[in-house]
Design goal:
With about 220 residues, this protein is α/β, with parallel strands linked by helices. It has a six-stranded mixed sheet with strand order 1-3-2-4-6-5, with helices on both faces. The chain is about 40% helix and about 10% strand. The chain is globular. Strand 5 and strand 6 form a beta hairpin. The N and C termini lie far apart (about 45 Å).
Amino acid sequence: MVAKVHPSVPFAAPSSPVTGLASLSERCGACERCGLAAGRQQVVISRGEATARLMLIGEAPGAQEDGCGQPFVGRAGQLLDQLLAEAGLDSARDAYLCNVIKCRPPANRRPSGAEIAACRPWLEEQIAAVDPPLILLLGATALAGVLGVKQGLSRLRGQWMPWQGRWLMPLFHPSYLLRFPNEAEGSPRWLTRADLAAVHQRLNSMGLVHGRRPPPLAPVP
């Protein structure tokens, strides 16, 4: 099923994802656009493969992410890695993972609208640099932060949405899945496995090798 979203101005992709992300990392590391900068240990920008054709966007760093500087490294991240692996995707090789917010909110609270707006330019740069054809929005905050959609996630999850020349799909956040260990058919984990299987199928249908950009053609001698 395909859901409709309002179009917006597309991001322009740079010629080199690695170059663009290296510059972003340096500048984002010094960011003080909102009050979260005062309480952070590290700016948490991303992990995974910069040339991946699949991007996953979550909410914000937690305590473990704030300590090590990478997103999705706690229990929720471990579950996400497991679910991706079950779908035939390697989080280090086939995906680029980041969050709407780059600094940890106090006590892991949900980020405010002002904080999301302050961090939005960094996320836009990441999307432009990686230029993924497929993006997964993990949880309601990612859905609202990227698309401005505040509908219940349960109504939209698993649906492909055309957006700026890309395809987006909302999924349950892995921290939500930790609260529901039930594996029965129709459960949140079962639905997420089905959603990720559809993601893998879409990657295959697009002719993408291991979820990454095909290698560039050699110059004609």
